[in-house]
Amino acid sequence: MIRIGIVGYGHWGPNHVRVINECKDARVVMVGDLDASRRAAASQAHPGLVTTELPEEVVTSPNIDAVIVSTPVVTHHSIAMSALNAGKHVLVEKPLCQTTHEADELVALSRQQDRVLMCGHVFLFNAGVRRLREYIYDDVIGTVRYMAATRTNLGPFRTDVNVLYDLACHDISFFSFLLGALPESGNAVASSFLQPGIEDVVFGSLKYPGGALCHFHDSWVNPRKERTLVVVGDKKMVVWDDMNSLEPIRLYDKGVQHDQYYDTFREFRTQIRDGDVLIPRVKQCEPLKAQDHHFVECIRDGMTPLSGGQEAREVVKILETLQRSIKNEGRQEVLHWDV
Ligand SMILES: NC(=O)c1ccc[n+]([C@@H]2O[C@H](COP(=O)([O-])OP(=O)(O)OC[C@H]3O[C@@H](n4cnc5c(N)ncnc54)[C@H](O)[C@@H]3O)[C@@H](O)[C@H]2O)c1
């Protein structure tokens, strides 16, 4: 049985406790939170659970094999470093940390300690994203021309990071996962309307090798809750709507024939292929449960995590680069992957 300690029992931490306790090979045995009311909430929901005010007590406890860090992003690096130093396996909520330098330290220490380091890039465990990846890898969609992600709602607002680090982090994690590549350059513009200095709306794009363009619009200040991704390939096009649990994916047999000239609008219309729309059955599973069970599996079987330290480091590097672009009023920034 893998014994797990959770640091941070705010909005998200309780979900980790629930899904880990649904796993036959793991149990949450300890929760650490600075806030007494959150410790009381944990004790009430899970009688018998050991709680502590001190995160160090969780990460150094001899009764714990692995730690899940679900605290504000500014604290991720120091808590995860302490846990790795104490020889624990670590799952850190997204994003892994704030800077590439911090990420490098975490990846190096996890290798040195031979411990699993994984990041909660939960969309890599989403059944819709998995299906899109199959479509791309099986060449159903053809060459991806562009993707456009929208992730908006009115709140919830964070104070520890901006909307780029909070929401766009999700889009960025699955762009690279879907394309199996890293972006060559990117840019973003953002504004803070509600909290000075913390951007609450961002529009950005990343350019991938071969020319695929990936756009994202993320906002905490929007009347519509939307979680969509449009993928346009040269063979087919897909719309994924993560809010539609019954029919999340529509595969459009649409395209344009390039190889003929046309002189009239009527002729132009004949160049457009407007075929069937397929709505595949997508078997849903709770992405957080799949993610946390994968973490347990990686510890138990010595597997390399899907969203391991290295992949999480790449996301942090992209976030850092886009934040620089925001500072520079949307300047295109080049991403070098040899450093
Ligand atoms: N994957 C997802 O979809 C998703 C969703 C929500 C949040 N998250 C991530 O989960 C993390 C937590 O988010 P949240 O919404 O629960 O935040 P939150 O502010 O609601 O909760 C954080 C908790 O951590 C505690 N805390 C703060 N500093 C601490 C420290 N040094 N030691 C111990 N406890 C400490 C706070 O008292 C609080 O109870 C963030 O990294 C966030 O990005 C991920």
Main traits of this protein?
6-stranded parallel β-sheet; Rossmann fold; binds nicotinamide-adenine-dinucleotide; 9-stranded mixed β-sheet; Dihydrodipicolinate Reductase, domain 2; 2 domains; single chain; 35% helix; 10 helices; alpha/beta
Structural class: alpha/beta
CATH class of the largest domain: Alpha Beta
Low-confidence segments, given as residue ranges, are: none
Report the helical percentage.
25-40%
* Overall residue-averaged pLDDT value: 95
Report the major sheet.
9 strands, mixed
Going across the biggest sheet, name each strand in turn: 14-13-12-11-7-10-9-8-15
Total count of domains: 2
Number-wise, the strands total: 15
Radius of gyration: 21 Å
Anisotropy-based shape: globular
Examine the secondary-structure arrangement and name the CATH architecture of the largest domain.
2-Layer Sandwich
C-alpha termini separation: 39 Å
Summarize the structure in short.
By secondary structure, the protein is α/β, with parallel strands linked by helices.
Explained architecture:
43% of the residues are buried. The protein is 35% helix and 28% strand. With 339 residues, the chain is of the alpha/beta class. The chain is built from ten helices and 15 strands. Helix 1 (13-21) links the parallel strand 1 and strand 2 (26-32). The protein has two domains: 2-123, NAD(P)-binding Rossmann-like Domain (Rossmann fold); 124-287 and 319-334, Dihydrodipicolinate Reductase, domain 2 (2-Layer Sandwich), CATH 3.30.360. The protein is globular. Bound molecules: nicotinamide-adenine-dinucleotide (NAD). Nicotinamide-adenine-dinucleotide is lined by residues 7-13, 32-35, 38, 55, 70-73, 75, 93-94, 120, 122.
